[in-house]
Amino acid sequence: MAQPTTPVVENSNGTLAVIAGIMRGYFQAWKLEREIDALGSSEAARVLGEAGLDRADFLARPTRRTPMDDLLLETGMEACGIDREHLRAREPGWLRDMERTCMRCPVRSRCRRATVRGEFLQTHHEFCPNSRDLAFAREFQLSR
After folding, report:
1. Which residues of 35-55 are buried (b: 16+ CB within 10 A; e: fewer)?
2. Each residue of 9-51: pLDDT tens digit?
3. Do 121 and 82 meet the contact criterion of CB atoms below 8 Å apart?
4. Which of 16, 37, 82, 124 could form a Cys-Cys staple with 77, CB 3.0–4.6 A?
């Protein structure tokens, strides 16, 4: 016998999809914290170091990350006309710094809204701590 399903109704701007993404993010963050806690201290330091974090950064993030947060910088770079893979190949340290800034950003919710609404390119300079780097990266790419 099939399980009944609850229909999902979304409004025109995808609010329920964003909420579902946030809830998945909380669950994934909880799982990740448990996995990191289960590692020995040296292994946890190595794993976090590969992501450009130390234990204090990992535990002190301003808010929990959502799956969409992993796409915020990528989506922002796309909106600005920047080829992320080109930047990764040519300036990997610079991209890691931008990723770290994005991970620590206290206004990710504003970024998510601008991204969902397709307004990132027009508004990111008002709130994004990576806005100067995005401008420089665009100039860097245009000069190649």
Report:
1. ebeeeeeeebeeebeeeebee
2. 445 556 666 666 666 767 777 787 888 888 888 888 888 887 7
3. no
4. 82
CA distance 122 to 103: 21
Which residue's structure tokens are 């234990």?
A: 55
What does each C-alpha distance from 67 to 16, 29, 70, 144 come to in angstroms? 14, 10, 6, 32
Nearest to 82 by CA among 7, 8, 126, 135: 135
Task: Give tens-digit pLDDT for 60-98.
Answer: 654 455 556 667 888 899 999 999 898 889 888 998 889
**Cβ count within 10 A of residue 75:** 19
Q: Name the DSSP letter for residue 39.
A: S
pTM (2 d.p.): 0.57
Integer Cα distance of 19 and 25 in angstroms: 10
